[in-house]
Design brief:
The chain is mainly alpha-helical and 155 residues long. Helices cover 63% and strands 0% of the residues. Helix 1 packs antiparallel against helix 5 and helix 2 packs parallel to helix 5.
């Protein structure tokens, strides 16, 4: 008996290796420029989670468990929430809750957002980790009988 292969074809795996980093960088870009263009932390987090989901689908669960586990996603999820809370409390202690207390630069320029990009980054981490954690939790359940179950074929 040969060892059962997990994941997809080598074409899908190699393509995933090429595009996963680009997808993650694009998600971070969307979060950082959310104050001057459509996007923000939520959209960036969804894109970042999609990069993780792509890795899980292309390489299989065993490989993905070596990179990130559900407990890792819980930690990052909590860190994103804590980061968002810290940004809000910093605004509160300087005069207004979630107030943009550090206005910088000119309007419609990258560094004009003050605290908005920081809160977008916190939301990016929270949403990305939450969605990836939910996907990992749901992908752990596989049917053992029924129409979706495919028994292992012996060769």
């Amino acid at each position: 008996m040969s060892e059962r292969r997990t994941g997809m074809t080598s074409i899908v795996m190699n393509t995933t290796k090429l595009v996963t980093g680009l997808i993650a960088v694009f998600g971070i870009y969307i979060a950082l420029t959310g104050h001057i263009s459509p996007g923000g932390g939520f959209a960036g987090g969804v894109i970042l989670a999609a990069a993780g989901v792509l890795v899980v689908l292309a390489f299989g669960g065993k490989f993905s468990q070596r990179l990130v586990t559900e407990s890792h996603t819980h930690v990052w999820d909590a860190a994103g929430a804590a980061g968002f809370l810290v940004v809000g409390l910093c605004g509160y202690f300087t005069g207004g809750f979630f107030m943009n207390f550090v206005p910088l630069g000119k309007v419609h320029k990258l560094f004009s957002g003050g605290m908005i990009p920081l809160s977008n980054l916190a939301i990016l981490v929270k949403v990305g980790a939450g969605l990836l954690g939910a996907f990992l939790a749901l992908s752990a359940f596989r049917p053992t009988s029924g129409p979706l179950h495919k028994p292992d074929m012996e060769s």
